[in-house]
Write a sequence for this structure.
């Protein structure tokens, strides 16, 4: 059974990123599972540091994007999330051509949602472990961020 409480599709997730930093760096959400979101980020001139490996901040961009999207779709309609905290442990260099993140909610509460994001390289070796904590807020402007 899926965790998602709002209609979700790859088209809608990727459409929201148009015209944002996510589009600029080539971030793409590529898969929706019952309990996870999966996305990729190229390791290239937009996202690497001077040694040609992924910039730690770029890994966090991937983690924050996937974690926030997963948390938002776990909310009941009429609610949305805002990030409270994100941490990242960089355990291996992410090398070209890309890194892949998988976000899985580990706690879905009425006031907070916690999502774990594991990022791997093209050989499926762990590059970064991240955790996002988000606050769940009532949408007072009748704007459902999932639509």
């Amino acid at each position: 059974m899926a965790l998602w409480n709002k209609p979700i599709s790859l088209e809608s997730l990727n459409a929201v990123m148009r015209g944002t930093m996510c589009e600029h760096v080539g971030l793409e959400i590529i898969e929706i599972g019952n309990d996870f979101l999966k996305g990729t980020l190229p390791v290239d001139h937009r996202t690497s540091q001077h040694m040609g490996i992924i910039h730690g901040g770029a890994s966090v961009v991937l983690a924050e994007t996937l974690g926030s999207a997963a948390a938002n779709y776990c909310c009941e309609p009429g609610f949305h999330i805002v990030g409270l905290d994100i941490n990242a442990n960089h355990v291996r260099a992410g090398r070209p051509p890309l890194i892949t993140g998988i976000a899985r909610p580990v706690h879905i509460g009425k006031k907070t949602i916690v999502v774990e994001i594991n990022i791997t390289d093209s050989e499926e070796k762990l590059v970064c472990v991240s955790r996002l904590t988000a606050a769940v807020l009532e949408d007072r402007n009748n704007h459902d961020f999932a639509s």
User: Anything to note?
Assistant: The helical segments are 10-16, 21-25, 56-74. Strands lie at 28-32, 37-42, 79-90, 98-108, 112-120, 126-138.
